[in-house]
Amino acid sequence: MKALIQRVKNAKVTVNDEVISSIEQGACVLIGICSSDTIKDMEYIVRKLLSIRLFDDENHKRWQKSIVDKQFEILCVSQFTLYNTWKGNKPDFHKAMAADRSKEFYEQFIQMLREKYKPDKVKDGVFGAYMQVSIQNDGPVTLEIESPSHTQNKTPNSLTDGAVIKD
């Protein structure tokens, strides 16, 4: 499982010109679900999202406070394209979990995130819909987290991989 985290001043998801969800300061998180993901991957991503320190403290010291510490909001958007590979110049998504399974998995993820934080602070888009995601990136700061089952035995490739946050 993969989370692409964007620290934001605000963010919103629109479907067919209708705003579905919006947040003020916090994080817009793109969620990729791999075909081999389990509940352990989900638990890891939820734990990391709520504990990583993305924000300054009251003395403006950087990277000191989490979303929970600041009581900020989270906007999650399912994005199967995070698990792409390339076939020539065309993206291939066979590593992503199939839509029928991933919808339930994603809904469980959102439910777990709400249970571990505050339900009213966790928003999301519409699974499987064609969405427009608008953000005002804060920093800009964009970070990636991938569950350990996908980072073990992985060697960095400067063309495809960035830094990976580990426990």
UniProtKB/TrEMBL annotation:
The keyword RNA-binding belongs to this UniProt entry's keyword annotation: yes
EC number annotated for this UniProt entry: 3.1.1.96
GO cellular component, one term: cytoplasm
Localization: Cytoplasm
Residue ranges, annotated region (Disordered): 145-167
Reaction(s) the record says it catalyses: glycyl-tRNA(Ala) + H2O = tRNA(Ala) + glycine + H(+); a D-aminoacyl-tRNA + H2O = a tRNA + a D-alpha-amino acid + H(+)
Keyword annotations from UniProtKB, A to Z: Cytoplasm, Hydrolase, RNA-binding, tRNA-binding
A Pfam family reported for this protein in Swiss-Prot or TrEMBL: Tyr_Deacylase
Predominant cellular place of this UniProt entry's protein: cytoplasm
GO molecular function terms noted in the UniProt entry: D-tyrosyl-tRNA(Tyr) deacylase activity; Gly-tRNA(Ala) deacylase activity; tRNA binding
Claim: Lipoprotein is one of the keywords in the record: no
Domain of life: Eukaryota
Biased composition annotated in UniProt, kind: Polar residues: 148-160
Family from the record: Belongs to the DTD family.
Protein name: D-aminoacyl-tRNA deacylase
